[in-house]
Amino acid sequence: MNNEKILNFAIRFGFLILLMGLVLYFSLSASGFASPRSAAFILQSVAITGILALGVTCTLVVDGFDLSIGSVATTSLMLSAYAMVILEMSAFSAVMLCLFMGAVVGLINGLLIVKFKVPDLLATLGMMFLLIGLQRIPTQGNSIATGMKLPDGSVAEGAFSQAFLWLGRHRFDMVVERLVPVPVVIFLITALAIWVFLELTRHGRLMYAIGSNERAAALVGANVNRYKIAAYMISGVTASIGGILLAARLGRGDIASGNNLLLDSVAAALIGFAVLGAARPNAFGTAVGALFVGILLQGLTMMNAPYYTQDFVKGAVLVIALVFTFYLSAKRGSGGKT
Q1: What is the tally of structural domains in the chain?
Q2: Would the pLDDT of 34 be above 50?
Q3: Which of 17, 97, 250, 270 has the fewest CB atoms within 10 Å around its CB?
Q4: Which terms in the GO cellular component ontology are assigned (predicted)?
């Protein structure tokens, strides 16, 4: 009985204990890690990947997977820059255009999967390559900035509006310093909204039911195809929000800036399986997973760890977290027998 209690405790709280241990280690080993400014930087660094990861979580809930989120985010970044710098559109119009693009991409992904029966990995992989190529065509592969020379020889006269840049650069007051960036607030609001949707609404429960047993969910009246399409549309919109925030932070359409968004977002979503022993996709776990990745990278950076070791460490942590979760859960399911 005692062994069972220890096992249940390890499954439920083991990852959070690991997270607190990591914070303590970096606080003692890296000067300045425990400062409020460092905490604000960590939150800012995980906000965009966290938002993308929340979208991935919705597709995982319905037993799917979206590989196109990184390219959707980068396309949103380039589209917002193109709209304001080259087409001279307003910030509001650029944001609405990007959100519409994300929803359309999610809709196409969903239709490919549920109507044309293309496997989710193949459908979203194809969309990823399509978007990577599409976003480069208007500028012939160049990044977008005010005053840039266009392919036809003219000069771009538009600029990023201050209202748009506010989304990525403004900081709210916290005690005595301006330490809370707008992307962090948007990340927290998005995480809360998706958590409420998945955990507290009938629609969210039906999406979990579809992911667990699609046939049984259909028998109780759930419109499986509609919910799957909705999941991919949510993923597309959240990815476009991430791209908007990244563009607002950079102030330019940097075509290479979203290279790591896919891997970091997927890592956060999958690490979320280990939080509180959920062993399933969930918004709270994803948010904690994104925070874990940010703390890990910030700590390694402040300890002057070589940059080329960071992906290795992220991969190792992801593997350990998932093995830890599913191995211990399997032991609990078998009554602790080996």
Answers
A1: 1
A2: yes
A3: 17
A4: plasma membrane
